[in-house]
Write a structure and sequence with these properties.
Elements lengths: L7 H17 L4 H7 L3 H21 L7 H14 L1 H13 L16 E4 L8 E4 L5 E4 L2 E4 L1
Antiparallel strand pairs: 1-2, 3-4
Amino acid sequence: ILLQNFPFCIMSVNITRIVLQALREECLSRECNRRQQVIAVLNDVYAAAFLQLYRVWKSQHKTIADSGFLLKELELSAKKKPKQLLKSLEAYVSRSPVADGIQRLSPPSGSSSISAGRAGEEINFTGVCDLQVELEGEPRLV
């Protein structure tokens, strides 16, 4: 089984840059004006961009070597099609697991999950503090 790591922190910094750049270049102005909000729009675009990146990363088995290309694609989406990004996030969040008749499994111990989304698709994250490291032969929490 191939473990497919996702560089959450690095991607988070890059997505923050992309969203702020889209705001500075006035690519998000229409949505900000429509909602009469800026921070909420930035948050939603950030979440939508992260969701898109994560889905592509997992479904196409991407690695860190692919990240430059993926981030460029994501930047184009955020600048040229922000409304489409936001609609995909809205669709993801609005799908009810109860309506689909699927119960979610509990996330592994020590991890958190985003479960408000598509049925059967749960995103689990393990925090750095949850990882065990062997130091001088004894496992301990970092």
